[in-house]
Every structure is written in C-alpha cells, then in structure tokens.
Fold this sequence. Notes:
- The chain has 397 residues and is of the alpha/beta class.
- It has two domains: 4-10 and 257-379, Aspartate Aminotransferase, domain 1; 16-253, 3-Layer(aba) Sandwich (Aspartate Aminotransferase, domain 2).
- The protein has helices at 16-27, 38-58, 71-85, 101-112, 130-136, 159-168, 188-191, 240-278, 305-314, 334-338, 343-346, 360-379; strands at residues 4-5, 65-68, 92-96, 116-120, 141-145, 172-176, 195-199, 210-214, 283-284, 295-299, 317-318, 349-353.
- Strands 2-8-7-6-5-3-4 form a seven-stranded mixed sheet, sandwiched between helices. A three-stranded antiparallel sheet has the order 9-10-12. A two-stranded parallel sheet has the order 1-11.
- It is globular and about 65 Å long.
- The chain starts with a strand and ends in an 18-residue tail after the last helix.
Amino acid sequence: MKRVYLDHSATTPVHPRVALAAMNFMMNEYGNASSVHTQGQRAGQAVEHAREQVAGMIGANPREIIFTSGATEADNLALRGIAEMHRERGDHIITTAVEHHAILHACDALEKDGFRITRLAVDGEGRVDPDDVAEAIEPGTILISVMLANNEVGTLQPVEEIVEIAREHDVWVHTDAVQVAGQLPVDVDALGVDLASFSAHKMYGPKGVGCLYIRRGTRIRAQMFGGHHERWLRAGTENVPGIVGFGEACALADEELAYRRSHLTALRDHLIEGLEARIPDVMLNGHRTERLPGNVNVCIPGVEGEAMLLHLDMKGISASSGSACTSGSLEASHVLLAMGIKHEIAHGSLRLTLGRENTREEIDYLLEILPPIVENLRAMSAWKPGEDTTFSSGGGN
C-alpha cells in the first residue's frame, strides 16, 4: 500500500541531498570540530559553512546563529537566557495561550522561579491582538515571546506589529519560527525580533538539530556549561553531521521557496474546498487566509479525532489531530480550547499538513477516503446534522 504522508508539521522526510551531505560527515569527515588537526579543521569549516547557510536563509549574520539540539532547546535558551541575564531589570514575561509547549512549559518553570508570566488570549482564529500585548506591558516586562505561526492551526501572528510595540518600551522579543521556515520567507531584520528559534527536521533536515538566532548586542545567559562551543552559549561537541544537514536544508529551502509556497497553497486551498464540500458541518480552524501554505486543520463534530486517524492510517494516510508533542495525550488541544472551541468539538480535530512531495492526486485520494469514514463514525455516535457547533464562552469570533 502506498503511503500518503500528510503530517509535515510533525516532521518532514530528509531530502536526499541533505542526507548525502550529513552522511559524508558521519562516514568520512568524522573529525571533532574543535580539534586542531586537519580532520578537525575540516569539520569546523563545515560547521561555519552551515552557519552561513542558515544565516543566509533568514537574513542574519552568521555570528548571530547558535546551534542547538532543536527548537525546544532554542526556545528554552531564549526564555531562560533572557530571564536569568536580566532579572535585575524586571521579572515579567508576556506570551500567548497558544504557544508550543516548549514555550509554555518553560514559562511554567520560570514562574516557579519567581518570574511573572502573562499568557494572552487569542481570538477565534488563533491570533493575538497587538493591542492586548501593549496593554500587558509594564515597567518590569523584559521579554515577549509570540510564535510566528501556530504549529496546530497554522495561523500567522502579527509579530512585526508586536515588535514595534515592544521597541517603544525597550522589551526584547522572541519568536518561535519553526513552522514558517521553508514555507514562507523569514527575514529577521524585517521582523525586528531579537531572538528566533528554528528546527531542521521541520524543513527536510535531520532531527536533533536546530538553532537560536540572537540579534547582535542581545545578551543572554547560557543554560549548558562545559566548553567554549557556540561562543560559550551552548557547551557540547557539535553535532557536525546534523549541522551540515541543517545548513543544506536551509540552502535547499532558499532555492525552492517560491515553488513550495505556490505548490502548498494550491494543494491547501483544494483540500479545504473539498472538505467543506463533502463533509457536512466541517469547521476550518485558524485564519482562512493568514495561515501557513501547507496547513489544514479542521474539526469534524460527531467524530473523535483518534478514530479518524486510525481509519485513515488503515487506508495508508498519515495525519495527526494536533501537535506531535501531545499526540499521546487524551486531552483536547490547548490551542483549540484557547480559540474558544467547545471541548467536545475540539476532540474531533484533524490536522493535515502538506509537503513539497505531495500531489493533487494524493489530496483527491484523501477526499475520496475521508467522507465515508466520517459518515460511518457519525452513524455510531449520537451526533445529528446541524447540531450546535458554535464557540464556547472561552473565545470565538
């Protein structure tokens, strides 16, 4: 059975060009990048070349790139690094209720350490209001962290507007840009952010490597201690194969960005139209247009998300019901609940995220397979067509 992979927000297949580049530094150029001998120097040069490739993709200076084990570490380094370095200046951090758990849980930990956290609400499309950000800022505010695009519903956030507000108050801004990189242009200077997190495996690179962009002049405190690696900000022997693969993935993204954007947008819109035409009462989650090109997230009342996933999997289709980090949880998506969607409706969510290799024929196959699955599952539930699927009191349009 041919598999149709529609879970690219969870991870992407490593591109052959990326795999070959990384493999060379596993099998042949295996030197430690900190060693002074020739093999070590070649490894070190490869790391710096990758740093240039990553920086090139986001319009940064290579010295502003700090390699990490992934975006989770980058998020933690950004939040804890700023908080601990500048505690004497303030103890207040602003974020949103729909951030990735790498941000939310890091904020929970900082709160236990005595920092004050404001978690802003979002509207029914998952967007935070910049005016709410402005109102939340106080004399002790040191950091605002708002993701560039949501990993579950794909909604793009008004980060540039938030940065303008933050500048008026001399507050640092971090964004988790993981889902955007490789789908839409990311220019850190245009955004104006001070820190930004990225991950290789969400853009056809290897797992276990990412980076934190730190604008020149921004001081943070290291969270790992040992050697001098990564300008003393991230101790530990560099993952040279992973870093090389990350760099190659960024170079590939630069080359293919226009194609990916148009290809994914066309497939996304075709999928949304097909779902709305074939499944009664389907609800599109997130902003209809201000969303990632490859993201389709829907709620299907009367159906459990897990049941849909199992039936789709038996038909060769890989999808998810939310963030991969919470796929083992029976709880409804915190993102959908924060958007004001009823708990029982949020349990019927389906996230279909597209990639560069997906085809219109694959989308048509999904549109052929899914409606009968939904019809059969609804027949076994108490749901009736036209039942109330409006937002709960927690949010909405």
